[in-house]
Write a structure and sequence with these properties.
Layout: H1 8-33, H2 44-97, H3 105-125, E1 127-128, E2 131-132, E3 141-147, E4 154-159, H4 172-218, H5 222-248
Antiparallel strand pairs: 1-2, 3-4
Helix pairs in contact: 1-5, 2-3, 2-4
């Protein structure tokens, strides 16, 4: 039945074209953003997970920055202490030579005093952005090493200070005791550096792993979307033609009255 008021073919063609345009807009948005899930309306569950993991990674990045700073502070302190141990060994050697025939003790003492002053200078110079683990005024270093989601607490690593500035080389026995303490402190700093660097490496890998996981949930497959875009553009063109044909069918009714 030909109807002037109701064009079923045009209605069907319009519905098909509307759906095609909607699908085309979705595909174009995915290509533009690179994400299959960019809003909660796309997939509420995946969007919620991705948003939460991005927030977690933001915290992980802050932890990584803290570990990087801590690693630098420990590295500076270890370098200073390592050099000071070499100087301390020279001091012990010179103190051991005092009292021997032909040795000018006063001259040796001047050398010891100069080396001791150099160690104190290293202690005060081993500073990284105001953090010094070797000076008398320095304090222990607390490094944020991790964060457990929803726990509200931070995992930390504490690196103890060593007062190198007050190192005592007044006599041979004292110097040997001081040198041993310096070596022990260097060993502790080395162990702390290994721990901080290991945690820094893990945190970097964790950030990358979370990014990959989020990508697997929300990233668009650009190859598939490109193919879908071409198909939808073709469907759109055919839909426009079908709608045009359906609308022109009502014009044929006029021929019945000629």
């Amino acid at each position: 039945m030909a109807s002037l008021l109701t064009n079923a073919s045009a209605m069907t063609a319009l519905q098909t074209l509307t759906q095609t345009n909607k699908n085309l807009a979705t595909t174009q948005n995915r290509i533009a953003t690179g994400q299959a899930v960019s809003t909660a309306s796309d997939n509420a569950a995946y969007w919620s997970i991705a948003t939460g993991m991005r927030a977690q990674n933001s915290i992980n990045q802050s932890v990584k920055d803290s570990l990087g700073f801590g690693s630098a502070v420990v590295d500076v302190a270890y370098t200073g202490l390592e050099e000071s141990i070499k100087l301390g060994e020279k001091i012990v050697s010179k103190l051991a030579s005092m009292g021997q025939d032909g040795i000018d003790d006063a001259t040796v003492q001047k050398e010891v005093d100069a080396l001791t002053a150099q160690i104190a200078q290293i202690a005060t110079s081993a500073d990284f952005e105001g953090q010094n683990l070797l000076s008398t005024a320095g304090t222990a270093l607390t490094v944020v090493a991790g964060y457990v989601k929803d726990s509200g607490t931070l995992d930390t690593i504490t690196v103890a200070k060593y007062d190198l500035e007050a190192a005592d080389f007044s006599d041979l026995a004292t110097a040997e005791t001081t040198l041993k303490a310096m070596r022990d402190a260097a060993a502790d700093l080395g162990a702390s550096k290994i721990r901080v660097d290991s945690q820094l490496s893990f945190t970097s890998k964790l950030i990358d792993a979370v990014d990959r996981g989020v990508g697997a949930l929300v990233d668009a497959d650009m190859n598939a979307e490109s193919a879908r875009l071409s198909a939808l553009q073709t469907q759109q063109q055919l839909g426009i033609q079908a709608l045009s044909i359906a609308n022109s069918s009502s014009q044929s009714i006029l021929t019945l009255f000629r």
